[in-house]
TrEMBL record, chain A:
Species the sequence originates in: Candidatus Fischerbacteria bacterium RBG_13_37_8
The UniProt record lists the keyword Transport: yes
GO cellular component, one term: membrane
Protein name as annotated: Phosphate ABC transporter ATP-binding protein
One function term, GO molecular function aspect: phosphate transmembrane transporter activity
Keyword Transport among UniProt keywords: yes
A Pfam family of this chain: ABC_tran
Occurrences of domain ABC transporter (ranges): 7-248
Keywords: ATP-binding, Nucleotide-binding, Transport
InterPro entries per the UniProt record, alphabetical: AAA+_ATPase, ABC_transporter-like_ATP-bd, ABC_transporter-like_CS, P-loop_NTPase, PstB-like
Single GO BP term: phosphate ion transmembrane transport
UniProtKB/TrEMBL annotation, chain B:
Listed transmembrane segments: 14-35, 62-90, 111-137, 157-178, 215-238, 276-302
Lineage, top ranks: Bacteria, Candidatus Fischeribacteriota
Annotated protein name in UniProt: Phosphate transport system permease protein
Subcellular location: Cell membrane
GO biological process, one term: phosphate ion transport
């Protein structure tokens, strides 16, 4: 399990107003592995994810201390280009967030805003990434229809294709199967396992079985505290902390 | 039947009757106008009435063309000025302004909407009319001597003045509606766009505005129909002379509502005069309705395409 860490979090604290959301978090996220961030609702999983691509900047009244390094650059440093940072990461939301345009334009959106104008190249990119997420066969005859007409499962795969078309190094998933039926969810999960070869994947989930199926590395958060992190087999088979034990076995955490 | 159910029934009936009453007012206005306007339609051809610009009630000439064209001119100028102004202001308020600032600016803009039209008229006379006659018009007619800037009206009371005052009157409502429409665009799709590395402006232009487009069109229509019927302020600054069609933005304009307000009730006993003025009112009503319907047609079309 000796992998280079792709994202390093050092003593990260996040406050929304007076609420202390993340408390002194230090994590190493290994390169080209699937890291699952698990924990009950409201433990700060999504906030942590939004720190990585600095979507947290959009929140009002937020305060941060500590550091996050991506590829060894401090992302909160003033000299860091947020646009370049975000381009490095594809993000999947709980519910697929398709843009109000055609299927084709959704996938081409990233390359276009980053300056690609050549239509032939764009078409190649669109086809390639739609194939990558196994959506091509389903939509190839209606690429210029509104993406809103797709099923939710198809939409989420479209969002994945859109993220990948940006050629990121990291894929962030914020409970990406939350709104999906089991079959669509399985498609996304299998896709993640394939993507692991080429991308670092950070997956926020509160589905334990999903974490067990996918994760190489597990981070367990509880009420903004980092309780435990480590390789998946270790954490799942032999959790060190009693809170992790309770959570994994489905018991109440506070009584433990 | 017990008393509570009886009360319920009574209240329901009363509200139904009041509702019918409100709707019937619209019906009676339309019918009344048409009935009163019909004598002149029986004598003069509709073509003459609509397209002739000769308005000489004492000689029996009732051409409404001048007033119709003036209405279109003034409204067009107002909307051309108001569209960029209100759209960009609304975008700034919704997407860029810090929360604090938004909380201060929004009520101020709403306040503008509540000011009496007469005040706008006075403001037009004091500020806009001299500005046009002393600076804008000399500049344009000396440097850019082509249509539609050439005019022999040097007073400043003009279609342009009317348009400017109107645009200021309609933009608070347009801003309000656009602001509300933009707020309905889910925050998450902004995040989705930003997460792909788009800038705020790219996100606004390509995603937010696109999603909000039907609503924005509706906002403009709302402003347009308001501008159409606005009377007092325009009457005060547009010049309202019977010079013939306005050919330049600096020519005087005499919109329909101004005609009605100026003449109705002071027609003495010239035959058909009141019928002609009420025909003007009827036309105004029709034009407003027509614009509304066209707008809703566009809206429905866009909505269906988006889906």
């Amino acid at each position: 399990m000796e992998a280079k860490s792709h994202i390093k979090v050092r003593n990260l604290n996040v406050y929304y107003g007076s609420a202390h959301i993340l408390k002194d978090i230090t994590i190493d996220i290994p390169e080209k592995k699937i890291t699952a961030i698990i924990g009950p609702s409201g433990c700060g999983k999504t906030t942590l994810l939004k720190c990585f691509n600095r979507l947290i900047d959009l929140q009002d009244n937020v305060m941060l201390t500590g550091q996050v390094f991506v590829d060894d650059t401090d992302i909160f440093d003033n000299s860091t280009e947020v646009i370049q940072l975000r381009k490095k990461m594809g993000l999947l939301f709980q519910k697929p967030q398709i843009l109000p345009m055609s299927i084709y334009d959704n996938v081409a959106y990233g390359p276009r805003i980053h300056g690609l104008k050549n239509n032939k190249k764009l078409s190649e990119i669109v086809q390639h990434y739609l194939q990558e997420v196994s959506l091509w066969e389903e939509v190839k005859d209606r690429l210029h229809d509104s993406a809103a007409r797709l099923s939710v499962g198809q939409q989420q795969r479209l969002c994945l294709a859109r993220g990948l078309a940006n050629e990121p190094e990291i894929v962030l998933g914020d409970e990406p199967t939350y709104a999906l039926d089991p079959i669509s969810a399985e498609k996304i999960e299998k896709k993640f396992l394939e993507l692991r070869k080429n991308y670092t994947i950070v997956l926020v989930t509160h589905i334990l079985r999903q974490a067990k199926r996918l994760a190489d590395y597990v981070v367990f958060l509880y009420l903004g505290n980092l309780i435990e992190q480590g390789p998946a087999e270790e954490v799942f088979s032999n959790p060190r902390d009693s809170k992790t034990q309770s959570y994994l076995s489905g018991q109440f955490i506070t009584s433990a | 039947m017990n008393r509570r159910r009886f009360k319920d029934l009574i209240v329901q009936r009363i509200m139904f009757i009041l509702c019918c009453f409100v709707i019937s007012i619209l019906f009676f206005i339309v019918m009344g106008l048409f009935y009163k306007a019909s004598p002149i339609l029986a004598i003069h051809s509709l073509r003459d009435l609509l397209f002739s610009s000769t308005w000489h009630p004492s000689k029996g000439n009732f051409g409404l063309g001048l007033f119709i064209v003036s209405t279109l001119w003034v409204t067009a100028i107002a909307i051309v000025i108001a569209i960029p102004l209100s759209l960009l202001t609304a975008i700034y308020l919704t997407e860029y302004a810090p929360k604090r600032m938004r909380e201060v600016l929004k009520p101020l803009i709403d306040l503008l909407a509540g000011i009496s039209p007469v005040i706008y008229g006075v403001w037009g006379i004091i500020a806009i009319v001299p500005l046009i006659s002393d600076y804008v018009m000399p500049f344009f007619s000396e440097r850019l001597t082509f249509f539609p800037f050439l005019s022999d009206n040097y007073t400043g009371y003009s279609a342009l003045a009317g348009g400017i005052v109107l645009s200021v009157m309609v933009f608070p409502i347009i801003i309000s509606v656009i602001h509300e429409v933009l707020e309905t665009v889910p925050f998450e799709i902004r995040e989705a766009s930003l997460a792909l590395g788009a800038t705020k402006w790219e996100t606004t232009r390509r995603v937010v505005l696109k999603k909000a487009r039907p609503g924005i069109v509706a906002a403009f229509i709302l402003g347009l129909t308001r501008a159409f019927g606005e009377t007092m302020a325009v009457l005060m600054v547009a010049g309202c002379s019977l010079h013939g069609f306005p050919k330049s933005v600096f020519d005087t304009a005499y919109p329909l509502p101004a005609l009605i307000a100026n003449t109705y009730g002071e027609m003495m006993s010239i035959p058909l005069y009141d019928s002609a003025v009420l025909l003007a009112a009827f036309i105004l009503l029709l034009m407003t309705t027509l614009f509304n319907m066209v707008a809703w047609g566009i809206l429905l079309h866009i909505e269906r395409k988006e889906r």
